[in-house]
């Protein structure tokens, strides 16, 4: 007897399944408690013959009670003093739900205990294969292979037309692999071979393994797409056809994005800064623009101070505050510091109009633009300026957007500095890939533009609400070059709330859809093929709203209504879709893992899908509809709360998916026992959606954020100058513009409120600042608040903290390593935690409703 047969017989014996058994018998035993365990439950069917009478007894209601008495009894319970102020419904629900949940936990725990040995047995060949692949990969010197390949291929590719010939031959071979029909055994062999090859390649560093993994992924995807379009579109009704083709369209969208994404990131350029040439007197003049509209001065102040301290000849640097809010406080602040102040009488074209108004009043050869919360490092202009000297056609150079405060995903899910944030993939990999194709996007901040080309295209684009990307498109169409240096040279504030974050993404999505409609990169003259692909992928990416909603609801067609929107055998579907999903995830983990962990793209899309689906659709139909909205920065979240308004779509989707899952349980046990794999496949798909939606609910639970000045974790040398004349060495553990956290020798006793001086270092010079003690602990942890600082001290403080050239260089080193299976487990845990937070918030709302109901009932006659 083989091990699989033996395990099946053992499991059947444990579940009391008679042999031979139908799938329905197995399902009933797996999902329905055996009769002998029903006695363990507090409530059995025999004990509850009439739910209403049982409920009346629990509520201590007499027969014929009035509706008002039912309401009072449901929501209120008398306390010993006779007043009705408790909530009976909570206890009642707990009394009913707790045994049910305990029974479910017991059932699933028992099933897992029974299935675990079988799963371990079945997974043994897979684990052995993975270990063998790792041993093979350890013996391969990928660097030496890469050097040999370069030596052999470089002279070959130097032959005119050879690159295109090789690309064409490779495409032809790939097309043959994609379209060759195979039996189920052949497809299983294909899956196994490319999976084993990927296990070896994923352990090898370098670009060639990445290209090979991407190619294998495209082959697997191509085979699935070809099979899907030729073998699964036979429908029995018009409704099935409509839903089936809708799902196919959503899948086709993902195939297109995968292909364009692999091309876009095929060869990240990883450009380095170019050294400046000539004496400083020959360097170009620079105007620094800091646009602001409604942000508080506390947010703008550090950016202006850091801009004043940029390492550039003083006579060639001018800093301007562009105040679209027309505030006297900002005018006075600019006059106090001696920087330029520009405002206008209207807010026409929002940020783009503000920048264009300033361009007309200034004359610097280069223009550096910073959002008002983005604090540049001292080395910013020296890092960026060299490429404008080296390349006369360089019209724009972009550096990354970096955020020293957590965005709503990071704060509400507790992943700050552990998991790369939403923008890390774009600034860490995609922009480097764009740079290879001379298609770097202007991102509105942390960038330098050459005035001449900018004015040639009419200044900052005003036709769409994503004026930055549209401006870059115009510059590329005119034949100018752009550059990207992947070194963080400025840092700013992330959005404080999920609603603000979604509002910002809605603007980006609408703007990209507007460009796609008004200035389509596929039709615009002057662009290369590769530039068109890079721009098209960036724009099409924001159309994920409708496809993601389709994926979140597609299994319901079968689980609710038994509609076959993919008309094929479930086992065959798995043999084709598994290589596609598996290979795409392996390739993405290898190429993108440092910048976006596996499965996290689906978290972001799940949260945003509902909100960007309509704006992108409207922008396609009416591209001039909508207006620019400013992203609020510097706000506070004074208390933890659940955002009921923003989470309504998630709650609806959660309820639908949970209902669909239990419909699947019923089908597996009773209605569709002849299609067990089809039911199980749809249930697994639904369960995955439930966990993703739980994570979305977790993001919607806003965590408290009460610091107006964000503290940045650090490890900087510091010195304490005590009033007694003693000098102590310390370490700065965090800093902001308002204070410091220090780690001093343990046992240090400082009185709260006492004054002292603290020294920080800028390059080789110590800067001393007055401060006041806020807290001092026996462990040596000291909290300081700065006193009144002079203008030079304010600039020095920024130089010692936010504007240090290496301030953000090692920021991402603390990120966890991307491990797909571990990441999937963590996302599942985050999903469950999201439901737990939602339940607590719901209880709080019920308590508030109870109080309102109590007041209303008491006032009734």
Q: What strand order characterises the main sheet?
A: 5-4-3-6-9-8-10
Write down the overall geometry.
globular
| Count of strand segments | 19
Q: Which stretches of 5+ consecutive residues score pLDDT under 50?
A: 31-49, 78-88
Strand content: 5-15%
Helix content: 40-55%
Mean pLDDT: 84
Q: How many whole angstroms does the radius of gyration measure?
A: 32 Å
Distance between the termini: 78 Å
Derived structural class: alpha+beta
Largest sheet: 7 strands, mixed
Number of helices: 29
List keywords for this structure.
861 residues
List the helices and strands and how they pair.
Layout: H1 3-15, H2 23-31, H3 35-38, H4 51-58, H5 67-75, E1 77-78, E2 84-86, H6 88-138, H7 142-157, H8 162-179, H9 184-201, H10 207-231, H11 238-264, E3 286-292, H12 297-308, E4 317-323, H13 328-337, E5 340-342, H14 350-359, E6 366-369, E7 375-376, H15 380-390, E8 394-398, H16 408-413, H17 424-436, E9 447-450, H18 451-456, H19 467-477, E10 481-484, E11 490-491, H20 498-518, H21 529-541, H22 545-553, H23 556-561, H24 570-592, H25 600-621, E12 641-642, H26 644-671, H27 676-699, E13 701-702, E14 712-721, E15 727-735, E16 739-743, E17 755-762, E18 765-776, E19 781-786, H28 791-800, H29 820-858
Parallel strand pairs: 3-4, 3-6, 4-5, 8-10
Antiparallel strand pairs: 1-2, 6-9, 7-11, 8-9, 12-13, 14-15, 14-17, 15-16, 16-19, 17-18, 18-19
Your description of this structure?
By secondary structure, the chain is α+β, with helices and mostly antiparallel strands. The protein has 29 helices and 19 strands. The strands form five sheets. Strands 5-4-3-6-9-8-10 form a seven-stranded mixed sheet, with helices on both faces. α9 (184-201) packs antiparallel against α10 (207-231). The longest helix has 51 residues, at 88-138. The radius of gyration is 32 Å and the shape is globular.
């Amino acid at each position: 007897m083989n091990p699989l047969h033996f395990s099946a017989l053992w499991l059947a014996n444990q579940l009391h399944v008679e042999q031979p058994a139908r799938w329905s018998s197995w399902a009933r035993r797996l999902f329905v408690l055996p009769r002998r365990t029903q006695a363990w439950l507090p409530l059995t069917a025999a004990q509850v013959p009439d739910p209403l009478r049982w409920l009346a007894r629990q509520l201590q209601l007499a027969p014929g009670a009035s509706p008002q008495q039912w309401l009072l009894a449901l929501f209120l319970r008398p306390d010993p003093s006779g007043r009705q102020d408790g909530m009976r419904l909570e206890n009642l629900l707990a009394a009913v739900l707790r045994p049910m949940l305990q029974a479910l936990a017991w059932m699933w725990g028992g099933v897992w205990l029974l299935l675990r040995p079988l799963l371990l047995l079945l997974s043994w060949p897979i684990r052995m294969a993975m270990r063998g692949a790792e041993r093979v990969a350890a013996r391969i010197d990928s660097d030496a292979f890469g050097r040999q390949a370069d030596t052999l291929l470089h002279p070959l590719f130097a032959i005119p037309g050879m690159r295109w010939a090789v690309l064409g031959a490779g495409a032809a071979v790939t097309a043959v692999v994609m379209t060759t029909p195979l039996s189920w055994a052949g497809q299983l062999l294909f899956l196994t071979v490319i999976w084993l090859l990927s296990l070896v390649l994923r352990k090898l560093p370098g670009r060639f393994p990445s290209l090979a993994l991407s190619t294998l992924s495209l082959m697997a995807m191509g085979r699935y797409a070809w099979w899907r379009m030729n073998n699964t579109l036979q429908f029995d009704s018009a409704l099935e056809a409509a839903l089936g083709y809708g799902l196919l369209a959503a899948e086709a969208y993902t195939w297109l994005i995968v292909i364009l994404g692999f091309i876009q990131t095929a060869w990240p350029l990883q450009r380095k800064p170019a050294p400046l040439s000539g004496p400083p007197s020959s360097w170009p003049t620079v105007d620094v623009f800091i646009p602001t509209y409604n942000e508080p001065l506390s947010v703008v102040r550090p950016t202006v101070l850091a801009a004043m301290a940029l390492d550039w000849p003083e006579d060639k640097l001018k800093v301007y505050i562009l105040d679209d809010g027309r505030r006297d406080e900002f005018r006075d602040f600019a006059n106090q510091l001696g920087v330029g102040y520009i405002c206008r009488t209207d807010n026409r074209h929002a940020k783009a109009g503000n920048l264009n108004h300033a361009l007309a009043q200034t004359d610097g050869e280069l223009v550096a633009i910073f959002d008002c919360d983005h604090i540049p490092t001292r080395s910013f202009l020296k890092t960026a300026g060299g490429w404008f000297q080296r390349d006369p056609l360089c019209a724009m150079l972009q550096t990354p957007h970096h955020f020293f405060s957590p965005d709503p995903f990071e704060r509400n899910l507790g992943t700050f500095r552990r998991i790369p944030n939403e923008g890390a993939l774009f600034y860490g990999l995609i922009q480097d890939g764009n740079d290879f194709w001379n298609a770097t996007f202007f991102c509105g901040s942390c960038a330098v533009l050459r005035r001449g080309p900018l004015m040639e295209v009419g200044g900052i684009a005003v036709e769409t609400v994503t004026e930055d990307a549209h401006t870059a498109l115009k510059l590329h169409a005119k034949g100018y070059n752009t550059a990207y240096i992947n070194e963080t040279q400025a840092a700013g504030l992330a959005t404080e709330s999920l609603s603000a974050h979604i509002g910002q993404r809605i603007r980006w999505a609408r703007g990209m859809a507007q460009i796609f409609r008004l200035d389509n990169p596929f039709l615009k003259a002057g662009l290369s093929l590769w530039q068109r692909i890079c721009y098209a992928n960036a724009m099409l990416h924001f159309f994920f709203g409708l496809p993601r909603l389709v994926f979140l609801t597609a299994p319901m067609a079968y689980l609710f209504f038994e509609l076959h929107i993919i008309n094929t055998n479930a086992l065959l579907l798995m043999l084709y879709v598994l290589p596609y999903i598996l290979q795409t995830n392996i390739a993405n983990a290898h190429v993108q893992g440092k910048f976006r962990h596996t499965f996290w793209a689906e978290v972001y899309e799940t949260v945003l899908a509902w909100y960007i689906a309509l704006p992108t659709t409207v922008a396609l139909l009416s591209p001039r509809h909508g207006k620019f909205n400013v992203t609020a920065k510097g706000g506070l979240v004074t208390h933890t709360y659940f955002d009921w308004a923003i989470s309504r779509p998630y709650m609806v989707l959660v309820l639908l998916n949970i209902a669909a899952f239990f419909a699947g349980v019923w089908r597996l046990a009773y209605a569709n026992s002849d299609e067990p794999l089809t039911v199980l496949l749809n249930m697994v798909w639904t369960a995955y959606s439930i966990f993703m939606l739980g994570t979305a609910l977790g993001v919607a639970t806003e965590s408290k954020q009460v610091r107006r000045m964000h503290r940045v974790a650090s490890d900087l040398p510091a010195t304490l100058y005590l009033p007694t004349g003693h000098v102590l060495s310390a370490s700065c553990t965090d800093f902001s513009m308002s204070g410091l956290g220090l780690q001093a020798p343990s046992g240090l006793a400082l009185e709260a409120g006492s004054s002292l001086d603290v020294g920080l270092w800028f390059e080789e010079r110590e800067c001393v600042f007055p401060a006041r003690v806020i807290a001092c602990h026996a462990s040596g942890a000291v909290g300081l608040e700065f006193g009144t600082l002079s203008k030079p001290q304010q600039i020095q403080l920024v130089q010692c903290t936010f504007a240090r050239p290496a301030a953000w260089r090692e920021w991402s080193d603390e990120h966890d390593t991307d491990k797909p299976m571990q990441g999937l487990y963590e996302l599942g845990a985050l999903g469950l935690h999201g439901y737990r937070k939602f339940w607590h918030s719901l209880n709080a709302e019920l308590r508030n409703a109870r109080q309102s109901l109590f007041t209303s009932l008491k006032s009734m006659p």
